[in-house]
Every structure is written in structure tokens, then in C-alpha cells.
Write a structure and sequence with these properties.
By secondary structure, this protein is an alpha/beta fold. Helix content is 33%, strand content 16%. It has a seven-stranded mixed beta sheet, sandwiched between helices. The longest helix has 14 residues. The chain is globular.
Length: 245
């Protein structure tokens, strides 16, 4: 695993331009799936697995997913990577439901093996870009926690539109969270952490960042990235933002 760069560029004018194209899918990883050519074929997902892709989900599976999302308290992780945190937390909290998103399908397949091995019935995952999918699942105002742990900084200028933390995304998270719900963010890139605090603060619907709000997650398994940071002594930033109102 590489340490990565510490410099972090923010261009406010470019951010504003990228935000203007947010609703058209600008920055979505892989683009808007509804706009892909009809000849593109997806790797099939077994019908019985708690793993979905909204572009080709069957009506029966969609109904099962909606029943799952309408149940117990819900937590969402965006970009779960290898799944250490998500699977570990779901195993430790059987009374809660968890929904995870990861666009890398090989990681989704590996996490599905973990879900099956643990016999977890409180976790579903999807390989859609969460920014595209979450608005279609009918969970607005019902999510207890949104976890975003070590998001990709997307260093190159031509990739800045792919950065997750932008004003429209924060507004989307605000809409998903229940009153008093929590946005939990971690990063080992200081510039990205400052960007998160700035964009969330500018929204106006969240209380100021408070690391104490995420103390309950200290007992959960760290992500692979965080474990690496701990091992080499690399600093990382832990942020918690509570939805007000």
C-alpha cells in the first residue's frame, strides 16, 4: 500500500463548475449507468445474494431489498473497499441493518464471501455509484449513520469532478439522515480533511465537527487503510457531523 501524496489542490472555480453538472452525472465513477450502450453486458449477480445493481435488479429482488431497508436502524457505508469496517460492524451489531456501496466489483465479490462466511443477514451491498443509487432507494430521512472512510482524493485535475465531497453530495447526505443522524468521515490526507470540514460547514445543516461523536466506532475493525496508517505512524483525521433540526 502506498502512502500517497500530501499536497492537495482545491480550485473553487472548478468545484463550482463540477457541481453544476452533478445532476447530469458529472463525476460518477463509470458514468451514469442508464446512459451506457444497450450492448454493454453486466457480470450477473446471483438472485439469492444480498448484492445488487439497480440497473438490472429483478422486481423480486428489488422488493426484498426494499423490505430490508424498511426494517431496523440503518447505517450506510460509501466506498467500503475490502470491507473490514463494514463487515466487522455488521457482525458486532446484529440489531442494525447495513447497506454498503463499492464500485469495484472484485471487492464486492470478496466481501460477499465474507458475508456468506459470517452468515450475516443484516448487510446488503451494491456496486452502483452511491451518488446515483441512494436517491432511488426511498431511505430519505431514515439513515442513522453515513460512513465515508478514506475516500479517494482524486489527485489529478482532470479527475477532480470525481471527488465525493462536494456541495451536492453533502446535501444528499443531509437528506438521507434522520434528525440527529451522523456523518462519519476519516481521511489521512490533511487537505481532504480540511475540504470536508469546509464543504460540510458551508451547508449549514450540520453541527461543527466533533471527534467525540465517533468514539463509539473505536471498537470496530479499522479499514485496511487505517490499519496501514497506524502501523507506519501516519496521521489521520476523524470527523463526526450531526444533522441539526
Amino acid at each position: 500500500m502506498r502512502v500517497g501524496r500530501d499536497d492537495f489542490e482545491v480550485d473553487p472555480a472548478r468545484q463550482e463548475k463540477d457541481d453544476e453538472g452533478y445532476d447530469e452525472g458529472r463525476g460518477l465513477i463509470g458514468g451514469d449507468p442508464t446512459k451506457r450502450p444497450a450492448h454493454v453486458r453486466w457480470r450477473p449477480i446471483p438472485e439469492e445474494e444480498p448484492y445488487f445493481r439497480l440497473i438490472d435488479i429483478s422486481p423480486a429482488k428489488r422488493a426484498r431489498l426494499e423490505r430490508f431497508l424498511g426494517g431496523r436502524p440503518l447505517e450506510v457505508e460509501i466506498g467500503f473497499g475490502s470491507g473490514e469496517f463494514l463487515v466487522g460492524r455488521a457482525a458486532a451489531q446484529p440489531g442494525r441493518h447495513f447497506l454498503g456501496f463499492e464500485v469495484k466489483r472484485e471487492l464486492c465479490r470478496a466481501v460477499m464471501e465474507q458475508i456468506a462466511g459470517e452468515g450475516l443477514e443484516n448487510l446488503w451491498i451494491g456496486d452502483d455509484d452511491a451518488r446515483w443509487a441512494l436517491g432511488q432507494l426511498g431511505v430519505e430521512g431514515r439513515v442513522d449513520v453515513v460512513h465515508v472512510l478514506y475516500p479517494d482524493p482524486w489527485w489529478k485535475r482532470r479527475h477532480h469532478a470525481k471527488r465525493l465531497f462536494r456541495a451536492p453530495f453533502v446535501e444528499q447526505v443531509y437528506g438521507l439522515l434522520a434528525p440527529g443522524g451522523l456523518l462519519h468521515v476519516r481521511s489521512d490526507v490533511e487537505g481532504y480533511a480540511r475540504l470536508v470540514e469546509e464543504v460540510v460547514g458551508e451547508h449549514g445543516g450540520f453541527a461543527a465537527a466533533d471527534p467525540g461523536l465517533v468514539a463509539d466506532f473505536a471498537a470496530d475493525p479499522p479499514t485496511r487503510r487505517e490499519a496501514y496508517c497506524r502501523r507506519i505512524g501516519r496521521p489521520y483525521w476523524v470527523m463526526g457531523f450531526v444533522k441539526m433540526g
